[in-house]
Amino acid sequence: LNLHGSLLPLHRGTSPVNWALIRDERETGLTMHYIDEGMDTGDVIFQERIPISDDDTPGTLSDSIKALAPAMIRRALKKLVDGGQLPRTPQDNSRASFSPRLRNDDLLIDWRKPARTVWSFIRGTSQPGLGARARVGSSEITLWGSLVQSGNVQSQGTAVPGTVIAADDISIDVQCGTGILRILRTHMQCIAGNDTLIAGTVFLPDDR
Q1: What pLDDT does residue 206 have?
Q2: N or C: which end of the chain has fewer CB within 10 A?
Q3: What's the CATH fold of domain 2-95?
């Protein structure tokens, strides 16, 4: 038997919490399932659901999912002690999604996407993960958090996506494909080069 941090068959793989946040999903949970020859493909025994809030991070969501485990294990043990058999429900493979481990090459932000999508990507890769990456010239910056600017979510500015359209000592505003994303300077970490960002700076596009 195995415990997996998602509602299987969704998010099979090693990083279900990160990908649930990256994909901006509204709920997740914990699954107890049988182990077979596939990756997280065995029949489901029990599932518990929890909502995902906009305040969740990989750390807080992981903690919430782990908190479901003791009761689920006790439920299974009681069933067996009472002489019963654990249920088994085959997974619907047509609904399956996969959540592979995030590598450095997967972390570069695509500013052409909507602000909410970029926001979801940044929070889904945040601590204890590796952090989302942005490039400016020879500099590479890790971003740990952001805010979608209300009232600008659907706006399509004249600036090229990835352009810093406003900057002060506290934060920068970046044009996305639609909408504007605000990034606090305390949520930025320069890992190569110079982290001086001013209005008019343009993050390099994701050319993968």
Answers
A1: 46
A2: C
A3: Rossmann fold (3.40.50)
